[in-house]
Amino acid sequence: MKIVGVPNAHKLGFEVQAMIALQVDADKLDSVAEELAKIDVITWVIISTGSVDVFAWTVLPSIGDLSELLASRISHVEGVRRTETFVSISIIKDSPGVLVTPDNN
Length: 105
Description:
Elements: E1 16-24, H1 29-38, E2 42-47, E3 54-60, H2 63-73, E4 80-87
Antiparallel strand pairs: 1-3, 1-4, 2-3
């Protein structure tokens, strides 16, 4: 088990939290995910089923920083065909980690 502290991003000056959905070339799926994972401001990357191939999560100080990330970094990753960005306007629940109870095996 690993116990970590989770800071309140908003109180630290990070105003923008966004989920970036990417459609990518099928033969570049793993390499796109790996390249996104190398970007320091992206904190979470998954390969998914459905109409979206890869999801990435970022927390940034401003919308300008998000624009810069999309235009200057993500758009240059080979294999990215399309992105759609979802900016959080209100966080209702933020419960990191996996719930562990005494009866979990």
